[in-house]
Design goal:
Elements: H1 2-5, H2 8-29, E1 34-35, H3 37-52, H4 60-63, H5 70-91, E2 98-99, H6 102-123, H7 130-139, H8 150-155, H9 165-185, H10 192-195
Parallel strand pairs: 1-2
Amino acid sequence: MYLRSRRVAPALAVSIATAALVWVLALVYSDAGTIDARAVSLTVMVAVAAFAATLGGADDALDHTASINWPVRRAGHLVVTAAVIVAPLLLTTVTDTRFAPLAVVVRNTVGLLGLTALGAALVGAALSWVAPLSWTLVSLLPFIEPSTKPAMQVAGWLIQPAGTTAATVCATVLAVTGLAAYTLRGCPRRPAAETTPDH
């Protein structure tokens, strides 16, 4: 019931299909063997955006009722979502074309998911995908490259190599802040007009 009300099945389908599509394209059109950070970032962003809708339910009153331990459920929802997004990307490591390195996949997933969770806590699940989409598009700009400058590492943290301190710190801050905000607050209550069925 919980999974159905949160529209988890469509989000899971989009996440897996996106990973499969990018992997097949890389397998067919690239000889590199490793899918680059830009493609990893785009793949993770689409998956995170798909799961953004699952962060809020249709009934705001139920999502804030005291009879359910919502903070634990929200935290578990984010942790499981991160694992579900990473899993198909991790499976490609047994093939000749892979999403790698794993540290970048995990960093980008938790960072973008944390940013999405923070957006959900501030503006609601319906708009929570805007921030991760915007930051990903900035990171994909041609002039954003791996850099030794901290400011550039933060602006383009999604495409920085594994072990880049500023990028890792940025992703960690986003992940922790988003997890805390969403776990403790959940999505804001919507006006009654938005949640009342049409007659």
